[in-house]
Amino acid sequence: MGISETIKKNGDATVTNFGQEIESPDMGSFKDLRIVIAGGGTGGHLFPGIAIAEVFMKRQPATRVLFVTSGKKIEETVLGKTAFEKKLISVEGIKGKRIFAKLVAMCRLPKGMIDSLKLLIGYKPDIVIGMGAYSAGPVIAGAWMLRIHRVIHEQNSIPGLTNRLLSGLAEKIYVSFPDTGFNPSCNHKIVFTGNPVRDEIVQASEINQNNHKGRQNEKRLFNVLILGGSQGAHSINKAVLESLRYLKNPEKFRFVHQTGIKDADAVGNGYQQHHIMSEVAPFFDNMAERYQSADLVICRSGATTVAELTVTGKVVVFIPFPFATDDHQVVNAQALVDGGAAEMIFEKNLSGKILAQRIAYYFENPEIKEKMEARIQKFGRPDAAETIVDDIYRIIKNDKLVESRISMAKKKVPPNLKTGEARKS
User: What pLDDT score was predicted for residue 4?
Assistant: First the structure.
């Protein structure tokens, strides 16, 4: 049976369905904290880490946050636009590679471990947060060896290899789905928080809700947002281009399309040939603005995209990546589909004609679109990052309380009284 630990807010305390009540942390105790966030590789691992970092900085601006990654282009692009500190370690993934590539990756592990230990000893973090990518592995392991607090967050409904391996070393495991499949021996560590969403997207969702009624009667173009993940999706790009010739009244539509690098020119040319308004780019930075203006989203069902859509309340047609590990993208989307909050088309069934039909359906049925927007928002957890930060503060506060009590106990022992010395009668 799954974890289903639904967290509720009750005044100034956090209450779980186990009946435990924990006081919210006193913010005055957390000046000058040092936080290490390890992981990246894709936007799905990176953006939740940024969301957590934003909350730490919002609570206490003196907090230092260091991101540890493997140096992939997406990591450099995204983190380069933030003020957070960044460090690289030498590490590569193993799963899904051929034998020779696996051997090369394994040979780099010792150096990655040494890099991590040096970094942790020098930086002296109060806690290390692992976000699931393989670069989190040696950093969390190093924190365990050095007895530094360590927690992990799992974005997907089915845990990835790195987090499965690290689950035994972590003090807490934060999960995005109520029934995430970790080993039952870890159940006491698991906290259902949801998947952290960046503050700009949470804010945009609130603005979108306030403006929703005013926009209903506007005569404007129907905006279709196409997302293939941080690296694009060729099959989705191809199907969307094919769908354009089936669209009736194409002048009533506008497409905003994140293509990935390889397909950007071809997709842009396709919209021009069909005389359809569009905005095409390999990657969009200002996703809050994109979500805010979207009427329909067509995308993969990576965990972070799913979380962002539930917070922003957008109608979505999911096209899961068919080669995702353990088919986790299908599982990520399934709860929304079962709840009537989203649609899902398997890639093997995908065609331009089918896609055009779904676009036309939501364009022609605004009342159905509105009902689905309301349903999908019921799955959203805009406070996920806040919940995680609150719990991390409690971990650190408890540690400080123990240290304080030990220090006080030592001071109370008379200096001339030695352990084991018998009192004279």
Answer: 39
